[in-house]
Amino acid sequence: MRLSSASTRGQVFDAGALERIALAAYDFEPGTLDAPWSATFDALTFPAALPQRQIGRIEARWDGAGMRAEGQFDLEGSSSAPDDGAAVWRGAVIGRGQVGGGRVDRVAGAFVGRTGTDAQLATRLGEAAERPGTIDSGDVTALLGPEGDGYLAREWAPEQVGGFQVRFASEAPPAPVPVRLELAAAILIVDPAASGFSLDALMRRTRRLQERLGTEGIAAAPTPGLRRRADVIAVWIAPANWFDDTDWPGGSPAARLGDASAWLRTHGIAIATA
Prior knowledge:
274 residues, two-stranded antiparallel ribbon, 29% helix
């Protein structure tokens, strides 16, 4: 598969795949962003170079002027080992929608002194006294009497209490605009028919890729107003007939792909079929 070809990328990363990638990269409800979907490939590296940290230790001992000294040195370096069938994509997925809150057009507040609060409390206590199993009128008298006033003064220490009401504008929402979702992704070619293939091993390999690439600082700044699921996501490119397998939950291939994607995106993984 030649992902370096723009035509191949266009076939693999269709609208459905790009939406799944967006949902794996950012935590938002499906439908918040919509078509048309597109992608930018600012950098596409083959194969993925996985950082492997190495620490070497040298110990030296020597005698001098009747003294024995020991020295110890830690050397830290890094090397890269390619992961066959993996690539690194830095770029973005672009959808249309609105990200951010509405416009506040009114804020109102009211405060009452502690005396007014006591009067309100007396009313509420009186109502409570009429309900069986709560309090009786004697309790109300005790709370509002001289001793009770000291209790209220301690419990209602602020001289004023109150609250705010916030109203958002009811105007029609503005027209959707392009929203660029910045991302970094490890792309893996998945062959379920390969000898020894297992979903568990694929998950472990994916997690290792995400963790190692995450330490390299390749992640772009997240899109404002959205929470990113992972610094580096993973994209599995798998055969379309993988979801013909009834071992996947769901009543049809499309439903199986949808159910699998909903679960995998919580791990920062998306599926594209080819």
